[in-house]
């Protein structure tokens, strides 16, 4: 047996620790610290929505498996993500025994809220360790907690941890070693939890709090001061709007230099290959297929990273739930609660995590509506498409001192948001549900974004993007190049060869459907592979136009080619199309999984397609009438 197999065997039989606690108390940060993994950590409730497993060895060499779980306020689950936690702890999930040890993580600055869950979990009768996490913050605020006394009161080991500091997990590791060997215990049925009334539990919490804490207060003065401004009825929304606006400006202005560098590099390689290689199929595949296609997507990496830089900062400093709070009124107007805000905001990255994050929504109907509108939020895969068309058609001018291109991008994002609100309003109205759930959301204390988290988050994003470029996009580009190159042009052809290829035929067939909204056959070719991933459309346009070039002039840079081949009306129509079109098969399949019904995936595709066509049609014809 090799070493790795030995390790694998030891891990398979290792005791299972479950990290349990209220939302936003630092479970995932602790999980990452223990296992060295990089699960997402952010400063709002409901970041983790799935169970994640990892393993580690204690300082004395004992192996452990560890589970990170969605945060829960109580084990009588109200939301689908809380249900995951309850089922894992109660051993109700197939393939999963109940955990051997429970590590209850509590936010030391918020014991009053957190202790209730600790008392509930204790009734399961499993071996437990209490992690007083965030003791660094508690100390700074002058909160004193007598850990030894707390341990006596609760009859369990209590350790202090700081999950965001290296070495901050040592106390927990020591406690685990002292507990070794772990004797398996069967948990009490979940019903045991409900045996004690909530009032009795609360009374017990108050008694313990009074006995073990000094100077306890769960308010943070600085956060309150900031909130007085940020949540102000007038100043609040203005700040939010300015913030969003600045982000889109930055996406264009900051990205210019690195984008130029990447595209110069890509172009250079293209030139090099075309001068040093003999003309032929291989050169065409490399230059037009791969460099023209993949290169044109790669250029957008800086913009995506800049967008994420801001999203990650907002997530980590604690602003997100405030934004949800500010938008609650607006969302209430369409029958959604502010709680839908976070899934919707996640959808700016990608609709898939957004649809999954809707698990944190309690009301099933609200959850469904949120899922249905999530893909209308502008995901990062649309950014390359928008940026490309904007760069080709919108002059680099300043209007009222701001970049016009950034302004248009801002408008496109808003088009997505407003139409989502419209669709939500329509869906809520047509299902006849008017009741609006009050927004119950904790506002965490602000803190400075953790630089390490930020770096990891950006790195993960870059990796995801480059992986996509290197796998899905590359494969599709090669495939598209092949379909666009064969069969070659017949003798006496008047069009470029791609016109006669398989892809060309397909594009021309689709043109019948899309001509009324201004899309020529070249665009139609790009729409099809764009279904796999939206940004592929950019690569596809790169390849299609590279292959459509006649003569020696080889343009690896797509922007000027588009500017000369399309009318402004077509460009605007394509932008409108991308705001709405259901151009992403993976989202549809996640919708089916999360709703448990394929019907909803079809409904989504149907309504989005109809909206896209209508919006493009109107845009195209209005623009034409205005002479664009
Ligand atoms: N200062 C300080 N911050 C911490 C500590 N532990 C976690 N944090 C921060 O607290 C926030 C929440 O951490 P997470 O690990 O995402 O919390 P979680 O319990 O997994 O939250 P959910 O997944 O939403 O249930 C993040 O912003 C962390 O950086 C700590 O010990 N000290
Ligand atoms: Mg978490």
Automatic annotation (TrEMBL):
Alphabetical list of InterPro entries matching this protein: Fe2_transport_prot_B_C, FeoB_GTPase, G_FEOB_dom, Gate_dom, GTP-bd, P-loop_NTPase
Pfam families, A to Z: FeoB_C, FeoB_N, Gate
UniProtKB keywords: Membrane, Transmembrane, Transmembrane helix
Database matches in PANTHER family: FE(2+) TRANSPORTER FEOB, FERROUS IRON TRANSPORT PROTEIN B
Domain FeoB-type G: 14-182
Domain of life the protein comes from: Bacteria
Transmembrane segments: 234-257, 285-314, 334-356, 368-394, 406-427, 465-486, 498-519, 531-548, 560-580, 600-623
Official protein name in the record: Ferrous iron transport protein B
SUPFAM superfamilies, sorted: P-loop containing nucleoside triphosphate hydrolases
